[in-house]
């Protein structure tokens, strides 16, 4: 069924179709309408789930952590300061290997206060051990939310589905809602191998020591270091799981095809713009214009940001002369996080393209297509002018 | 009133293994052993970082036989909410969910989540064992450390501020069951947990819990000191059921004649050594006034 609705409603619809059992959330702009929609679905009886109106984001994720530990499919959503307020729990959920799904409706972080879009919130949590997927439009939001549960439950690692605040969360666009039957065929019931159960008691997330220790039968059990190594190893395996889930989704629901990176006119491109989120669709216009000028450009939207598909990046961009990374976040005092990741992925190649970094759109600063065009053109034509330091687009003072 | 449990009628089955990691003479290990008997096997525990995390054992060995979720310090009551949500979603409605936290995890960092859960009316039992400081991290002051007590963050003059009255704060949420208990009277605690299990909605039990390591007394005096706190009228055992306050057990039997001077309690522990005579007199006076009020209410 096709409908025209907001990105937040697309996300809520995905959560419903995934038959989520426990939802806990705390309102924050621009995530709020998603929370409201879910409470409406549950309150009206249209969705069979427990909706828990917690008193903070820290508690929202606590509820999900505990519900997931007790064997239920759990969901939460937040933005910006809400995400940071959860930070301790974000790391906890990953360490405890709980397949929670969370929508991060991307917004800049205070101080000073801003409610508008950038990516600093999700980027600041990139090292927590969560899978991060970025959606570019409403269709991708609903499809990615549904896939996220399957990915999370397959590898027992939580997933953030990130989408741009306001630009996607509050705009209305047409998208297709998959049939419940198709979703059910895609997404099996959540049945974890262990969960909190008085008949089979276990003490979860116990204190560990620096070394490995034997259990009561004398078998060696992993220590903290082994447990963390498992998380990393499984994160690396997740790259192929994301691809596999995309193929399965194509078969059962009928959409997909860009599990890791979504490319536009990249096949013969000399210069490729790289970014996260809806910006990649805006950059398509710029690519078309530059192509009209005879400059062979393309744009690649990174869909899977963590684990980082570094080998795919290295292989895909092996023939490019230049990569231009446009980012709505940065590691203060250094450079854009995506920029660093792209550069380190390319290090394995013998022939490395030049890589530029543009910082833009922080706190919702309008990203003007002519500005993008100007920057992209300079990078392609006069690339030696620009060094390794990030260039800021859209600064007015 | 239901029959009081005695040492003869207490279930024999042990749910806490011998040889756990608590210090010798730990009040918590007394109430945990008896408390789990009252909760029974069909229980899921939620525990934040505290001495209890250590008592329960180091991975991969557990000192208890109940399923337990270790959670972050501030999130105990919210995590209990999440367990309840999952149990409801799965139709596993009979299982008891019990949160068991220290005074720091309850009255300080955990109070927001606890207040939220009480306001939402979550069907859980929250047990706070009050050893009156952050013991796990080496005896720092907490919101429930009494005035005058020496801790590692109130090392010279003792704590300047008063003890936070957590049961009163929780009672102000209008929940149906709030009770206090003491490690020195474990069977009283047993009966209170049993009663809590029959009530739906949030139940809060605050347990005074002597700690030889943090309070500065010989481990053999744990019960004696716990009793002195009650016998001096400093720490009272009571229940607030549907808003109705009533002293219970040994506190109920206490009267102005039987009540011992509070100085007897103070002199048993090195943590009170900064208390001046004047201060002790003031505390004695406030206890006397409190007991006058109790007597007025009763009369
Ligand atoms: C967010 C956070 N802050 C601080 C700590 C360190 N910490 C662990 S246990 C503890 C004190 C616990 O005190 P209490 O709840 O009274 O339990 P007790 O140790 O006295 O049994 C502290 C401060 C932590 N684990 N997490
Ligand atoms: S420090 Fe106190 S509360 Fe903690 S285990 Fe030792 S005696 Fe028990
Ligand atoms: Mg304590």
- The CATH topology assignment of chain B is Rossmann fold
Distance between the amino and carboxyl termini of chain A: 48 Å
CATH class of chain B: Alpha Beta
Count of strand segments of chain B: 8
Low-confidence regions of chain A:
none
What small ligands are held by the chains?
A: thiamine diphosphate, iron/sulfur cluster, magnesium ion
Strand order of the largest sheet of chain B: 2-1-3-4-6-5-7-8
Tally of domains of chain A:
2
Please state the second-level CATH architecture of the largest domain in chain A. Answer: 3-Layer(aba) Sandwich
**SSE pattern of chain B:** HEHEHEHHEHEHEHHEEHHH
Could you tell me the strand content of chain B as a percent range?
A: 5-15%
- Which value, in Å, is the CA radius of gyration of chain A? 21 Å
In total, the number of strands of chain A is 18
User: Please, how many helices of chain A?
Assistant: 13
CATH architecture type of chain B: 3-Layer(aba) Sandwich
The helix content of chain A, as a percent range, equals 25-40%
Shape designation of chain B: globular
Oligomeric status of the shown chains?
heterodimer
Biggest interface: chains and residue counts? A-B, 47 and 45 residues
- So, the CATH homologous superfamily of the largest domain in chain A? Thiamin diphosphate (ThDP)-binding fold, Pyr/PP domains
Shape of chain A: globular
